[in-house]
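Most newcomers find our protein records easier to grasp once they have seen one. Each record describes a single protein and holds just a pair of labelled lines. A learned vocabulary of local backbone shapes supplies the integers on the structure line. Nothing more is needed to start thinking about how sequence determines fold. The record below serves as our worked example for the rest of this section.
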Amino acid sequence: MPLLERDHDLQLLTAALNDAAAGTGRIALISGEAGIGKTALIGHFIARNGKSARVLTGYCDSLFTPTPLVPLHDIARSLGGRLLAQLESGAPRAQLFATMLELLRDPAEPTLLVVEDIHWADEATLDLLKYLGRRIAQTRALLILSYRQDEVGARHPLRLLLGDLASSHTTLRLTLPRLTLAAVRDLIGGRELDADALHRQTAGNPFFVAEILSSDGGGIPGSVNDSVQARLARLSPAVRHVLETAAIIGSRMREAKLEAICGADADTIDTAMRAGILEMAGEDIIFRHELVRDAILAAMPPGRFRDLSRRVLAAIRASGIERGDLAQLAHLAEGAEDTASVLDYGPAAAKTAASAGAHRAAAAQYKRTLTFAVARPAAERARLLDLYAEQCAIVDNLADAITARREAVVLWHEAGNSLQEGAALSNLAWPLVRSGQNAAAEEVSQRAIALLEAMPPTRELAAACRMQAHLRMLDRDKAPAVHWGKRAIELATRFDDKPTLAAAELVVGAAMLVSGDDKGLPHFNRCLDLARAGGMDDVVGLAFLNMGSSYGERYEFGKAEALLREGIAYAEDCDLDHSNNYMSAWLALTLLYQGRWSDAGNHATAVVNCPNFSLVSKVMALVALGRLRARRGDPGTALALDEALDLARQTNTLQRLAPVHAARAEAAWFEGDKERVAAEATAAYELAFNHRHPWHIGELTFWRRRAGEDVQPPRWCARPFALQIDGDWQGAAAAWRDLKCPYEEARALADGDMAAKLRALEIFDRLGAAPAAQMLRQHMRDQGTRRIPRGPRATTLRNPHGLTVREITILDCLAGGLSNALIGTRLHISSKTVDHHVSSILAKLQVRSRAEAAAAALAQGLVIQNREMAAPK
């Protein structure tokens, strides 16, 4: 079938390959619905350009639980050499990723790396693509990734990768449209078919059009499935058997393997290929389209499906099992309803997936196994539940992790294994606290310790003590956190449990440092030494995270920034997204307090917009964003701080609630609502007082006093706040200046004499703190002050494209990723009106898509990167 209406896409791909050949690697994301022609486009592009670059191709499995890194196996088999040897020996995935990147950096020739159907990719493959995508610019490679857009929902794992790649200037997005009526007419040619009817029937989907045109029947079938079934019905039973067997095996297979399994000769397989259902792709036989395979499987009776699954399973088992076969064997065993085989292959496949970093696939394998393990002894089921819960927790499926841990606790109790029951209770605390259920986490942690302390000391008790220390640290209870942490250190040392030892050193260091005790630093250093020596990258990331945020909570922002930037660089290099996001949120706060507001907004917005956020990261990013908006007078302050409060309340902890309520008190102050200022500041006051937190109690007391309440700060209140509350504006301003907090310095100066007030106005105006400056000017006018500096004039946004103010606003929304419907709702206009504005914007910017318009807007400064127009100066 000819490739129609794709010339422009081929030109863009060719330009991207030329960029790669010149030394700037590129990524091309090719998306569209099933059957739209993604593979055909890639095939034509390779045919045109394959001689100018080395072509490497990988495919993703359509199995429910895919084989980890299967595209890498495809590539390694075509290359041979070191990558294949590493895969066969089970090398760590970090080594595999580095080897693949090295291949793409080969200066001898450019590389065209194609990975198709990434909507089916396992988590390890997505991590590999993210790893390569973040570093592609330093290679001579064009990375082409294809996926079905209609299968990628809001919670699809691929969303995370797409969000990560979307911000890169190296990324080219191609969304393939359906064929026009004119193209359908061209394809019909001289056939006696109604082009209008066929176009309506298929909606211009190229695969659907081709399937109907390939059907020898008269007229247009009622559905594409009908056309596929009609073609199958005309084939001999032997050929249908080949096709059904192939559909059970998967999307692609070696010819010899297919012959051996189904017992067919080469002629029968050739007949199936001549029918246009199977085709060769290198050394593999593949289905011409996955939709054909889907139709074959859907039409297969359950008994036939079970019998063929058993036959394929037996044949693969007889031919010798390789490491890469385990996921397929578990899939076949489930289809064969073979309980013993599922229990054999499921856990083995899960372990292999977990070691490759494919934790979602590992969780799916354990879940499959558990459905077949209902009659197994309690201890065996409990062990499987523990393994399943561990994988669920890693991928943030916290609800299932909690359920599985609770079931495991019951089963270990039934089995009479108190040691494992205690371990399961302690492990249950982790997903509970991460999901904001801190009280429940505390309860199960205490139960675990009581159970484990009734036995001789064990490494399980060490881990339980570490967990209790962590909970106490999160609640900012220094003394009990240090007590439990040091007990964990002693026990972990006795049992040579280095992971628990490193984690315990970290939590003791954090508990001490955040409370102002620098004796916690040696504990952090020991943690880092242990973690680096043991290859515990995640613990290294957590150490930087805790050190940086601890200094930030102490208002030592210079130290905080240095540690956070070092930690972010480490997290980016190791792809530790959770640590990276949390440190970026705290970096936003650090920059905000240091008066670097534009950078603070960029970091905060990046975290808020991240599709894979953790609750704690988003809370701190929203606090930074809400305070920034309030201090600049930008819109959206309430939106950010309301969401922050909703999330913080789930944790019910001081370290989340106090910053949120303090930010909300400040926002209420700018609105002139003293009653709400007092309510917000009082909401977290008792919590801060009970935990003796000098900085939180200082700010909350400050806002209560501003609201008119007669409340005195405790003697351990942070000094800058205490000085200002006591009326020593000069001492407070100096203290804030020493901490390099210009906004807080100006706020203290505003309480002073005329010279101090003028200096405060100068700082507020320089920062862009319009609300504070306006309030101070009004106060000075009320006092009869004359010749008050007017401050910067409001300016009109100018641009070289002739965009109207409304178009700039809509362009800002496009840069934020909003749909036309959401833009209409936000601006109180119809979607049709938005459509007209978007069309005008595209024409004026001379771009062809919303994504290109957003990229141009950011690149040319038409909207700022955190998508909030600054307050007029």
Observations:
- Residues 794-798, 864-873 have pLDDT under 50 and may be disordered.
